[in-house]
Amino acid sequence: MTAVAGAGSRAAPRGDPFVPRPFVVRRHRQDTRDTWTLVLEPADGATMPFAAGQFTMMQAFGAGEAPISISGDPARPEVLEHTIRNVGAVTRALVHAGPGTELGIRGPFGTGWEVSSGRGGDVVFVAGGIGLAPLRPAILEVCADRASYGRVLLLYGARTPEDILFGDDLRRWAADHAVDVQVTVDNGQHAWQGRVGLVTQLVDRGGFDAVNTLALVCGPEVMMRYAAMALRARGVAPARLRLSMERNMKCGVGLCGHCQLREYFLCVDGPVLTYDVLEPLMSRAEL
Amino acid sequence: MVETRLIDVTGLQSLLDALVARGYRVLGPTVRGGAVVNAEITEVADLPRGWGDDQEPGRYRLRPRDDEALFGFAAGAQSAKPVFFPTDELLWRGRRTAGGSGFEAQSAESAQAAQGGGVEEHGEDGPDTRPTALLGVRSCDLSAVGIHDTVLTGRGFTDAHYAQRREGAFVIAVACSDPGGTCFCVSMGTGPRPEQGRGAPFDLSLTELLAPEHRFVVEVGSERGGALLDEIGATAAARGDLAAADAVTEQAAQRMGRRLDTDGIRDLLYASIDSPRWDDVASRCLACTNCTMVCPTCFCTTVEDVSDLSGESAERHRVWDSCFTADFSYIHGGTVRESTRSRYRQWMTHKLASWHDQFGSSGCVGCGRCVTWCPAGIDITEEAAALRGVPGSNLPTPTSPPTPASE
Amino acid sequence: MQTITDYLPQHPFFAGLPEPVVALVAGCAVNVHFRPGQHLFHEGEPADTFYVIRHGRVSLEVRAPAGSPVVVDSAHADDVVGWSWLVPPHRWLFDARATEETSAIAFDGACLRDKCDTDPAVGYALLQRVVQVMSTRLQSARIRLLDVYGAPV
């Protein structure tokens, strides 16, 4: 019996979940000083359907493996898109994998955002830093079915204006899909004309109907805690507030035990979990 | 209706012979390095005849018995865990292709098959593909194997390596007659007598009787187990033999060295998240990982990538890991569980509380190994009692006088 | 043309205040306008004004000897700027610069303090709202201090 239920629908990996499948890097784009986006295609031609919010275990041959969220369009499973921040040995090898290089992929793993459950109401995306990347598939999903949703807000906090990801997307989502995109930075240079402040301040003032809102939050855990508090203060129900959690993920299939957050294996029960489940678990250090 | 037979020591040898003749690699308890361990055996003489043990927190000593018992000891140094879930497992092998930009990865099965073998460990003459017969599995460990079956094969993703080893294995359980000072299977509802339907299934289960003749009452758990007994000419057990066997485990149940009050244990642990007791235990815990290595249910692993010097070929191995290490909870930015306090809390909470949510059972089977093999003598039953705020609730039952924890 | 008294209850800072209180404090206020680049105030100057932003954007900046000033906070429509008028020694701690066409309502700090002193109930109501703003900005500053998106690259 597994009493712990995940958020539901998910795409499952093919074959032996421990053996990576080769994917070829087709496009390689530097987004910011430390972040790159890779567009990959399966070497064997078999597509990899995924749900927005899922991740894969990515490896550069011989360099080890890291969990990376999928940042591409779930409506286009023929390509696999990953946005990767260079923060360690594995991610360094990944971001430097140029076109033609084969990378090993296992997955997709974990629970998705299930943004479609927000149809008929408002949707608020709250992103911090690289946390915009795992939300991007869900935003694309909403944009493709925009009429089914009420107000859609993207509240995005970045470190500096130079660290803002997906600038073209942000402009397109605002201009073509009526997404209320609000960006704030921690530190602004003199020339920065946008907002300076914490992303939670955007939540306080955001124009959405809290009682009929689905809120999806992704970013550093500290930022998510305060964003969740701000959303709760606005009146968003804990069960309608979803966060994507990060822990040490090694196997991706709930067998290695590393990513446990008390009773949850975050690689299979998460990474996306609702706040009613997470609130007591996020309130303690070192859990 | 439980089918029971009777064999004597010669019959036990015949049983071993019949298993070897059927192609099994027979593993059973034997004395090595001053401890009872599981190793390949072929003869009754390989068993720990006349050996018992003294087990207390932080202490394990073999003790000569004044009888000829073959199974007169408590939980050995290792459970069945390493047999089905080895410390090091090859997951896949790969090599670079296409001038270095590509690669091929083969699962362990196909990599081994290409070399003409299965996934069993390599003997001196190449891969050992024999199925395993495991003799001497205690009731607590049988429950632990059942838990591993759930954890590793009973959920969304299956550990194919484990499943393959388990599938062909022949299991001979043994009832406990002389529990150790750290045993508490009665508290956990896992022993001392192996019962079909509790834990992993067994093929045969032995209860050793020493007087008037040295003999074994054998409970048949499977068709192939019964067939094996037919082959060696095992007779039916008499009513007196069955009563004697019952008495063995009834007496063993009265002589548990430790007790753990499991009433509401899950909620107790969850409610104890801020208990000062964690600081207390952390002041003693060395975070050495011994408890997790000897625990028959601990299943956490990590992966190690091994590549050759040229970087042309690489292997990925899965190896045992422990929640007591700093690396275990490492994420970008640092270790989530930095303190020993939080690591012990994680381990104990997982064993006694979150395991229930994850797998529908306790993660502790009461084998006592974590208590025995802890160099600091930390006792999970004592820690549980302390969290409950009932000093002394850990006192051993009167028939087993308390022994000083340190000598 | 909407009067200041008509407008104030629509601003989040004053929303919910009793009408007489709004009318009372409106007596201290005038409409002001800033062009992009124009400063509302400079660090160290006497702080005698409380700004309620109607439209536009204001940067709160810290100057350094070299390089451009760093923007440490920004204020927008529905925000307020400045609490130094309330806190001795009534000196501005930052520069405030409009970066867009900005319209605001400027309250005379001494006038407001006088009203607060005369009627502590008014003072308490205003103070509660100022503390709310301070709390939000303090939290923002503290969390940003962590540099949670920062990179050890």
TrEMBL record, chain A:
InterPro entries: Cyt_c3_hydrogenase_gsu (IPR012165), Dihydroorotate_DH_Fe-S-bd (IPR019480), FAD-bd_FR_type (IPR017927), Flavoprot_Pyr_Nucl_cyt_Rdtase (IPR001709), FNR_nucleotide-bd (IPR039261), OxRdtase_FAD/NAD-bd (IPR001433), PyrK_electron_transfer (IPR050353), Riboflavin_synthase-like_b-brl (IPR017938)
One Gene Ontology term from the biological process aspect of the record: pyrimidine nucleotide biosynthetic process
Cofactor: [2Fe-2S] cluster
Co-factor binding comment: Binds 1 [2Fe-2S] cluster per subunit.
Residue span, FAD-binding FR-type domain: 18-115
MF terms in GO: 2 iron, 2 sulfur cluster binding; flavin adenine dinucleotide binding; metal ion binding; oxidoreductase activity
Binding positions for [2Fe-2S] cluster per the UniProt entry: 251, 256, 259, 267
Domain of life where this protein originates: Bacteria
Keywords from the UniProt entry: 2Fe-2S, Iron, Iron-sulfur, Metal-binding
Stated name of the protein: NAD(P)H-flavin reductase
Source organism (scientific name): Pedococcus cremeus
Source organism phylogeny: Bacteria, Bacillati, Actinomycetota, Actinomycetes, Micrococcales
Automatic annotation (TrEMBL), chain B:
Basic and acidic residues: compositionally biased ranges: 119-128
Signal peptide: none
InterPro entries: 4Fe4S_Fe-S-bd, 4Fe4S_Fe_S_CS
Keywords tagged on the record: Iron, Iron-sulfur, Metal-binding
Compositional bias annotation for Low complexity: 103-114
Superkingdom classification of source: Bacteria
Ranges where the record places region Disordered: 99-132
Annotated 4Fe-4S ferredoxin-type domain residues: 274-306, 355-383
Sample GO molecular function, one term: metal ion binding
Annotated protein name in UniProt: 4Fe-4S dicluster containing protein
Provenance organism: Pedococcus cremeus
UniProtKB/TrEMBL annotation, chain C:
Matching InterPro entries: cNMP-bd_dom, cNMP-bd_dom_sf, Env_Response_Regulators, RmlC-like_jellyroll
Domain of life: Bacteria
MF terms in GO: DNA-binding transcription factor activity
PROSITE patterns per record: CNMP_BINDING_3 (PS50042)
Name the UniProt record assigns to this protein: Cyclic nucleotide-binding domain-containing protein
Domain annotation Cyclic nucleotide-binding: ranges: 13-82
Pfam families: cNMP_binding
CDD domains: CAP_ED
SUPFAM superfamilies: cAMP-binding domain-like
One GO term describing the cellular component: cytosol
